[in-house]
């Protein structure tokens, strides 16, 4: 027996029926972000009315018993005992008989043998092609070396004022790059963000241009417990991280027309799917 959360149980049942979240959303008329919230076991983001209605409809659609799920979803530590399917062991493949290879003895060619071999035009063709390819490679290498040397000679002949101008531009570019204190990497529906040069206070500003409901939560902040719902009436929110916090997870059920700023620096969300729940893991150094 294996213990799993309600969200894992729902996701496993959906995948067993080879269903996509989009198909379930269309069939049950439930927004995709709420299905994703249930499969991530984040029922605290739903009102009790929505949680009861959506969970009951989803379990009945998957041919599951809804009663224990409806009773236990309010407890984040609630687990179901599910019987694991035994994996069928693959049958051993018959061993192939090893066939002995006969190696012909090496015979040293004489000079006359080599000339006799090359008399055939078909045998000379590969040698000609290899020679041409070698010449082509040597030509490309020579061209690259020539261009590099020419570029270095041009730089050496530039006036001192031009060199000073280029140096000043390089320093400006380096300064602009150092001003950016955010670095991020994206994997699936998750973004890992590192904030360097921690200030006394770290703020996260979230705003959206649409009227759709968007559940937002920021751990280790004033939006840690219940979060906030952005909609047509509430377009933006601001979270202030605890002064001792060195990590926070920002949860967004949708990033469609959403802007996230960390200490007034805008985070690039273009690589994330717009209709799926996204997670931003913020590490503060």
From TrEMBL:
Location of the region described as Disordered in the Swiss-Prot/TrEMBL record: 157-187
Organism superkingdom: Bacteria
GO molecular function: DNA binding
Keywords from the named record: Membrane, Transmembrane, Transmembrane helix
Annotated TM spans: 127-147
Pfam assignment, any one: HTH_25
Biased composition (Low complexity): 169-187
Protein name in UniProt: Uncharacterized protein
Organism: Streptococcus sobrinus W1703
Classification of source organism: Bacteria, Bacillati, Bacillota, Bacilli, Lactobacillales
């Amino acid at each position: 027996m294996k213990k799993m959360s309600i969200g894992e149980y729902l996701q496993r049942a959906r995948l067993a029926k080879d269903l996509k979240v989009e198909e379930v959303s269309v069939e049950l008329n439930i927004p995709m972000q709420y299905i994703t919230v249930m499969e991530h076991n984040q029922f605290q983001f739903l009102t009790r009315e929505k949680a009861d209605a959506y969970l009951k409809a989803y379990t009945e659609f998957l041919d599951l018993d809804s009663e224990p799920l409806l009773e236990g979803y309010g407890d984040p530590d609630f687990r179901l005992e599910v019987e694991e399917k035994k994996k069928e062991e693959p049958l051993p493949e018959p061993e192939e008989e090893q066939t002995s290879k006969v190696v012909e003895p090496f015979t040293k060619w004489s000079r006359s043998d080599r000339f006799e071999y090359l008399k055939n035009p078909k045998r000379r063709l590969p040698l000609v092609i290899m020679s041409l390819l070698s010449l082509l490679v040597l030509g490309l290498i020579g061209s690259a070396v020539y261009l590099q040397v020419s570029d270095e000679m041009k730089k050496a002949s530039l006036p001192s004022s031009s060199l000073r101008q280029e140096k000043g531009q390089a320093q400006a570019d380096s300064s602009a790059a150092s001003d950016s204190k955010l670095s991020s990497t994206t994997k699936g529906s998750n973004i890992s963000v590192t904030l360097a040069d921690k200030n006394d206070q770290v703020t996260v500003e979230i705003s959206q241009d649409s009227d759709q409901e968007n559940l937002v939560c920021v751990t280790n902040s004033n939006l840690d417990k219940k979060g906030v719902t952005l909609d047509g009436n509430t377009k933006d929110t601001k979270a202030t991280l605890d002064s001792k916090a060195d990590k926070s997870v920002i949860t967004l059920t949708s990033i469609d027309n959403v802007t996230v700023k960390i200490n007034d620096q805008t985070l690039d969300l273009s690589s994330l799917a717009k209709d799926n729940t996204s997670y931003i893991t913020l590490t503060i150094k």
